[in-house]
Design a protein that fits this description.
There is one protein chain. It contains eight helices and 18 strands. The chain is α/β, with parallel strands linked by helices and about 300 residues long. It has an eight-stranded parallel barrel, surrounded by six helices. Helix 6 links the parallel strand 17 and strand 18. Helix 2 runs parallel beside helix 3, helix 3 packs parallel to helix 4 and helix 4 packs across helix 5. The protein is globular, with a radius of gyration of 18 Å. The structure holds flavin mononucleotide. Flavin mononucleotide (FMN) binds next to loops.
Length: about 300
């Protein structure tokens, strides 16, 4: 085995989104890089993805909205966020100074809302791309979730492609029978990449009070327990599309991240793991490099899609 001293870690995900390495922090688990971001060296990351931003500020769901369960956690935050105007005024100036890629996670409740949000964000410097969170209800279509429907997904992606030159990463939900088909629709409508998976719907019950442990009754399940689901979904999407995939779900170590590379992810996001260990994503960056050095791998790209089947 040849010895490798310098491992090439960077990746170009297309349309101006160049990452110094393949590890990002996931939306909703790193705020606006202003809380956990203070505790770690953000410049060591491939990129940060903000909490979802909506046109208007949102209070989110009533508490309790987070519970710990075996294998991870349930959350029903309800997309609480500061809204577009405060984001641009208070959060973006600081994000812009970070020496890492900044991706803004956007959420809307109609196609028109997504379009207006991205159009207005596009007026501002310091954003390297958008991650489009489709796991929310379309109020114009009776509250059906965008991500569960190929036609609604196509409509949003096509409409956003028409208004922005920035990188569009479309975030998919695992709750669909054929995720490869949804990923293909994203590709056809001009998406630059697809990230997957968002949380898995779950619930927990307090047997003494007989009440749900989340005020919202159900929530999104995240953490180590969802990793096998996420790996299978990324593999399914990998077989369906050519655009880059970004793997998310239960990543707690460099080894977990490498599993995602092998099933076809070009990059990964660390979510719940950051709550357990604030600097986990940085440790994963270092762990991937150490693995590559030990295995004689000169470029992390050699791992991508390397699954032997
Ligand atoms: C507390 C919390 C808040 C989240 N908020 C968002 C959000 O605002 N937008 C979004 O697209 N995903 C959100 N997610 C989903 C994560 O970005 C990620 O897709 C999911 O948690 C799976 O990854 P993990 O198992 O590493 O946490 C949130 C997850 C958690 C745990």
């Amino acid at each position: 085995m040849s010895s490798v001293t310098d491992v090439y870690t960077a990746v170009d995900l297309g349309r101006g989104l160049r990452l110094k390495n393949r590890v990002l922090v996931a939306s909703g688990t790193f705020a606006y890089a202003d809380t956990v971001g203070e505790l770690i060296d953000v410049s060591r990351l491939g990129g940060v993805i903000t909490k979802a931003i909506s046109l208007q500020p949102r209070e989110g769901n009533p508490p309790p909205r987070i519970v710990e369960v075996p294998g991870g956690m349930l959350n029903a935050i309800g997309l609480a966020n500061v809204g577009l105007e405060r984001f641009v005024r208070e959060k973006l100036p600081r994000l812009r100074l970070l020496d890492t890629a900044v991706i803004v996670n956007v959420v809307g409740f109609s196609t028109a809302e997504y379009v207006e949000l991205v159009r207005r964000l596009d007026e501002h410097e310091g954003i390297d791309g958008y991650e489009v969170n489709l796991s929310c209800p379309n109020v114009k279509e009776g509250g059906a979730c965008f991500a569960d429907d190929a036609r609604m997904t196509a409509e949003v992606v096509g409409a956003l492609r028409a208004v922005t030159e920035r990188h569009l990463m479309i975030k998919l939900s695992p709750g669909v029978p054929r995720i490869g088909q949804i990923a293909r629709v994203c590709q056809e409508e001009g998406a630059d990449s697809v990230s997957l998976i968002n949380t898995v719907v779950g619930m927990a019950v307090d047997i003494r009070t007989r009440r749900p442990r989340l005020a919202n009754v159900t929530g999104g399940y995240s953490g180590p327990a969802i990793k096998p689901i996420a790996l299978a979904r990324v593999w399914e999407a990998y077989k369906a599309v050519r655009i880059p995939l970004v793997g998310i779900g239960g990543i707690m170590s460099a080894e977990d991240a490498i599993e995602f590379f092998l099933v076809g992810a070009q990059a990964v996001q660390v979510g719940t793991g950051t709550f357990v260990m604030p600097d986990l994503a940085v440790r994963i960056v270092e762990g991937i490099e150490a693995f590559c050095r030990a295995e004689g791998i000169a470029d992390v790209a050699e791992l991508v899609g390397g699954l032997r089947v």
